[in-house]
Specification:
The complex is a heterodimer of chains A (575) and B (332).
Chain A: E1 8-17, H1 21-32, E2 37-41, E3 57-58, H2 67-77, H3 84-104, E4 118-119, E5 129-130, H4 136-151, E6 154-157, E7 159-167, E8 170-178, E9 184-194, H5 215-221, E10 227-228, E11 233-240, H6 250-253, E12 257-259, H7 267-270, H8 280-292, E13 304-307, H9 313-319, H10 321-331, E14 340-349, E15 353-354, E16 360-362, E17 368-374, E18 379-380, H11 393-413, H12 427-438, H13 445-459, H14 466-483, H15 497-521, H16 539-542, E19 544-550, E20 556-562
Helix pairs in contact in A: 1-4, 1-11, 2-3, 3-11, 5-15, 13-14, 13-15, 14-15
Chain B: E1 8-16, E2 26-34, H1 40-51, E3 70-73, E4 76-79, H2 85-91, E5 96-99, E6 106-108, E7 111-112, H3 115-123, H4 144-148, H5 167-171, H6 177-188, H7 196-204, H8 218-222, H9 229-242, H10 250-265, H11 270-285, H12 287-295, H13 314-328
Parallel strand pairs in B: 1-5
Antiparallel strand pairs in B: 1-2, 3-4, 3-5, 6-7
Helix pairs in contact in B: 3-6, 6-7, 6-9, 7-9, 10-11
Classes of the chains: A alpha/beta (575), B alpha+beta (332).
The structure holds flavin-adenine dinucleotide (FAD), iron/sulfur cluster (2 copies) and FE2/S2 (inorganic) cluster.
One iron/sulfur cluster (SF4) is lined by residues 166-168, 178, 213-219, 229-230, 233 of chain B.
Amino acid sequence: MSNNTNVRIYEYDAVIVGAGLAGLAAAKELTEAGKRTAVITKLHPLRSHSGAAQGGINAALGAEDSTELHEFDTVKGSDYLADQDAVELMCTKAPETIRWAEHMGAAFSRDAEGNIAIRPFGGQSKPRACYAKDRTGLAVLQAIYEQAFRAGIEVFDEWYVADLLYKNDKVYGVSAYNIRNSEPAIFNAKVVMFATGGHARAFRFNSNAHANTGDSLSIVARHGLPLEDMEFVQFHPSGLGGSGVLISEAARGEGGRLFNALGERFMTKYAPNAMELASRDVVSRAIMQEVREGRGVGKDKQSVNIDLTHLDPQIILTRLPELRELAIAFQGQDMLKEPIHISATAHYSMGGIPTTINCEVRKNPIQTVEGFYAAGECSCVSVHGANRLGANSVLEALLFGRHAGENMVKKLNEGIKLKKATKEDANQMLEEIRRIKTSNGNERVSALRAELQAGMTEKAGVFRTKISLEEQLSHINALLQRFKNIRIDDKSNTFNTDLQEAIELGHMLEFSKFIVYGALIREESRGAHFREDFPKRNDEKFLKHTYAYMDNEFNITHEWGDVVITKFEPKERSY
Amino acid sequence: MKFNNETRKVTIKAFRFNAETDYLPYIKQYELEVGKDDLVLDLMNRIKWEHDGSFSYRRSCRHGICGACGIKVNGKPVLACKQNAIELLDMFDNDITLEPQSKKRVIKDMIIDKKDFWEKHAKVKPYVVANVESHPTKETKQSIEAFDALLNSDLCIQCGNCHYACPSLEANPDFLGPAALNAAYRFSIDTRDNASEERLKLTSKPNIGVWDCVKCFECAQACPKDINPIEKITKLHNMQFEYGIAERNIATKHAEGFVRSMKKHGFLDEADIVVYSEGYLGMYKHLKTAYKMMKAGKIHFTDGLPFVDNVPKSKNLSEIQKLIKISQTNKL
Ligand SMILES: Cc1cc2nc3c(=O)[nH]c(=O)nc-3n(C[C@H](O)[C@H](O)[C@H](O)COP(=O)(O)OP(=O)(O)OC[C@H]3O[C@@H](n4cnc5c(N)ncnc54)[C@H](O)[C@@H]3O)c2cc1C
Ligand code: SF4
Ligand code: SF4
Ligand code: FES
């Protein structure tokens, strides 16, 4: 495959990488506007991780709720790092976006009046999470896929995007290969969008799909483009003890209570008002603090209990059936009868590819790249700042995905030209594949990955210090070297998932370095980022977005970008 | 739960085949330590990560929600990321073989070509047919009852387990199969949809639609999300009658035959239904299915003979009642 003569070149108006909520929403807009659009995804669209979202999707639909309250909760939840213009756009458009999903056919649960049902979620002053039992993501993903399918979107599924075509400040396509038979191709387009989802697979305990390896982040970074706020990784309070598999916040939203080994309802100490429904970062730290002080339960005392047994069983059976099944399948615990062991699990990536409010990718804090867009979890338009509120991210993916689609249509209508690709543009991808396939060392991909993940959870996890981060940084450097010395077993061209896992590990090592680097230079604690050696927020120095850049030797440098503050002046944050 | 704490050392067999390099499939064995919380996906990962990196399967979410990881173990359809391994080892006496959902469609190891699955799915207009307002200021109202009437059909994760377990589909490639029919129900029952009639017409067609389901309940057993496609198929039957779409054809006679059989035996006499609706000659057309079902123990070879009343009555009656109950209750 290192020879580029058999590279096929496809031409499109628009190419979208990723077919979760963000990618599909954009694809639907573009296709309906008559633009020739290709959606490329390494999974069948319906297998995208958006489908795993459980608890809800936010919109101020309730009688006592308002857009302004939603904005305030989001900004406060973000520990004031969110860009408030983007937050305003999101919260204002949230109601129409949820209703749009409903009109498309999303099977939302209903209240007695036949409206979309809402439930309380952490960090929110009013019940605001619209839900479809505990499978909200599935309901919305199915609906957007169904209507996009109906609109006739063109999907290249089980294709792996390996590189971006970027020259002279302009993006003009991607290179990719068909996973089924390794056939390489170039997708040449006037506008390109990345919607590749999250990257919490870099941690040992995580709630993410195997596919969430953050490929697009390092693909972008390899071209010298920045990543923003990568140090902010959300640890969800309720991952199942052993596996990190998620028990949605809905379990707390519906009334679940947290207890330590002594049977104390410990949230009274950490968030006396909001209790279990404090913001995620607060609850996760509380849980890990209890564990650290020896009051954990379960295997190695690494978990605490969430108890739902006081609830009417009907609530569990009708609103949390999937969660109950997960706990039974993964650890043999039935929440109807007993408390469930949970622990903080790496869950969501606030940082990512920096974009403007119109989803255009930034080249630095002030300039953008022509023809390049991003939305959803892989991006950082910064509506979540330092910590995302539950049920805000499926909203973000759907809403900004669509918004990106609309802006791409606009750009195409303005007459943006196609920069022609050549077969040589595939060389970087072909070389990467050749290198991995022919590398004949003695390191195993799975072992390197396990080391990376263990280190990230232990040293760049819920609690961080200068020492732990420096250790992890040099560990990653060593892993990057050892990665050059791998050997994979599978040399075939058919569904070579061995090759794919190796490419993905390369990405994970590189973007993880951004996470650790960002955490190291941010000498403060804000939202999900907690430095034990700097436990206070420091607005004077760090009310700023991190923009980090990588060179060919994986060295990282950074600069700071401004935070957009409009309505809400930073205040101390308590729950 | 009943599991003991220790791990168990076992030999796991796996079906191996690479369409690119292998002429024939083969079985390979792997020594694994299995713990009480291990899922089948954990075993597959360990085979790939510790033994042989070329072992290939689809997986993504590991939350039992993306539908990627459907395989078979000793012929039993499972969702690998949700199925406890010890449970299976107990069930099969520590002798298990990981297999793809459909061996004739295999591309590599556990990975099959699901083209037929998606094509069938596409046939039933798998979307709500309505004008989607682009900037709605109100949601469509839907009562809790109307939402409940979906009967969890919307929870289908397109894993294909039912599809590749259905004997009718195996015998008749034109049959839409349980997953597509479940989807047909999901959209037709939705109060926002305007294409129910079209779907009911399609699914009432002989050879393609609901009437080719032989009510064997394989799909109900195969479904990891307890969706019970056969229940939806039965609902579609009823809706076809309600909409006056079901014509008097072999198929509706089949329905009458079903009732006749139930009355006569308290039992579904598969062969009797065919005889009743298509005559004895008609039976020959179904010999292939019949043979498969015989192998599966669903019918007996004397079933079609007019004077041999071999249909057991009292012994299986309770089981039938259980099945009817399964098909009627809305499981969680
Ligand atoms: C268990 C769980 C529960 C959650 N629950 C909630 C919730 O209740 N509420 C909420 O608001 N949020 C929730 N979230 C977060 C939310 O689901 C995600 O942030 C959101 O769905 C991301 O959508 P997306 O479109 O950006 O990406 P995804 O849906 O992850 O899609 C990514 C797409 O990119 C493709 N892709 C990736 N890399 C490549 C490549 N190299 N080549 C080709 N294709 C590629 C994939 O195939 C996929 O189609 C949850 C997350 C998890 C993990
Ligand atoms: S009950 Fe019908 S649809 Fe289900 S497996 Fe049997 S024949 Fe197929
Ligand atoms: S009905 Fe069940 S078994 Fe069939 S495809 Fe859907 S989830 Fe899978
Ligand atoms: S990996 Fe998604 S259902 Fe099993």
